[in-house]
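Record filed below.
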Amino acid sequence: MDAYSGYNQIRMNKADEEKTSFTTDQGLYCYKVMPFGLKNTGATYQRLVNRIFARQIGKNMEVYVDDMLTKSTTAEKHMEDLKETFDVLRKYQMKLNLSKCVFGVPSRRFLGFQVHQRGIEVNPEKIKALEGMASPKTLKDVQKLTGCLASLNRCIAKSTDKCAPFFKAIKKGKRLEWSTECEEAFQKLKEYLGRAPILSKPVVGETLYLYLSVIDLYLSVTEVATSLVLIRLEEGIQKPVYYTSKALLPAETRYSPVEKIALALITSTRKLRPYFQAHTIEVYTDCPLKLILQKPEVSGRLTKWAVELSEYDIRYTPKAVIKGQAISDFIAEFTEPDAKVRKVMEDEQTTKFQWKLHVDGSSNTHGSGAGIVITTPEGDTMECAMRFDFKATNNQAEYEALLAGLRVCIALGADELEIYSDLQVVVNQVLDEYQAREEHMIAYLDITKRLLRKFKVYRISQIPREENEKADALSKLASATTSIRSKAIPVAHLTKPSTVESKEITIAEIRPSPGDWTYKLRKYLEENILPEDAIEAKRIRYRSTRYTILRGELYRRGFSKVLQRCISGEKNRRDPEKRPQWSVWEPHWG
């Protein structure tokens, strides 16, 4: 249905009539009804129809400005729905343009798409126009073609890939070159639109599913696009709801494969925000997105995206069996690129644990100390100076620095470690090239090798002192004086040598009770279980982006990326007299 001169059916406010004045040869006139051409006429009319059809919109009616669609599942129900619509129109004295109204039809064009009982499909008139279109010969023809396709993007799988030759042909600074590649893409596009999939309408409250893929256009590393399809299940068959595709910016093409997949998801949430707000979304991808977004060492942009995604109810699932031809075609087109993405991801998994540890010990008349510099796979740096409360030789100080650095790396979850030291004796003893003769040196070497066995791969190398400047400066800072007051660099105190046996304090693991503040966070992060209350579940999802589980402990990410361990109520009940040998120090991220 279409309203008859819809804007003119709204009366102007008496005080505003003079503001619509216009001059003619017969005098000065003004509008008593809302004219076409005013800045806010569209918004005003939309507010009107939203108010008068408030009970029907989304139920048996859809309205966009002056286009109205009454929908029903059966013919009998349709008569009741039409009667309800006409009663509202009569009540508010709204008139229809009979020449543009059609009643009792199984399908109808609405907002440029053909709507019928099976779903939403491309307007046949647009398809016919594209099929009858000759191959473009000028730049204007190509722009006209891309403009027509832009309105059909939601119905075209991998649209960026299909239209890429056209965009390349109209790049600025280039003359139009309609190549064989463009002609093939044009003909394939015509063929695809002839059998374009029918889009399905989601039901309120049902779970929707999202397939993500990152595609490499023409095997070029500089032209990359992300594509996705939102689907729903109907009688066991997967039906598409919406296709989207986006060409990446030059900076985005340099993202890692994991970041590109995360970008595809974040782009879909921004474009399909109403769907994500109204439905639970299950994301089908072979990439462990949830695990990556919750890792403590994620990059800044991934952390920001994780916070943005926490607004929605998103679940991550490995790709399942495909139960729909349209979805099968979509997935088949991405099989090879996804395999390449997974391979790159696997390569990254093997190299991302390449932690680097620089250590140095120092001993002088003022005392002894050590310097530790740890570099993460992302390039972040942790620095610590350690003061010894006992006398130590240079060799002992170097070993203490090495042992402290190894303990910190183990606590941070490093699997592959590259160690640098400028003391030849210690390095060669660890490499079994030198023999340790003194009893205390043998003890230090034994502890060192015991800790090194906890790494999958490690390598220790001797480097010149000039290449170990940071650790050297930290060790001298720690050993220079007994009263160190450094706000930028944390300083730890070691009260006894590592070779001195001490009784270890064993603290039984206490799982938080349901009343503990960490309980709900742990349940979600470890078991993906949320509270039944929707508001509380949303709050937990949002908070979880700032927390991570590391070696069974709950940590909170600080603003400077420092991990802060969360203490539950039960763990605060330790005996204050039982103090460990080591002082606690916070890692500083440089």
Remarks:
- The chain has a mean pLDDT of 75.
- Residues 394-411 form the longest helix (18 residues).
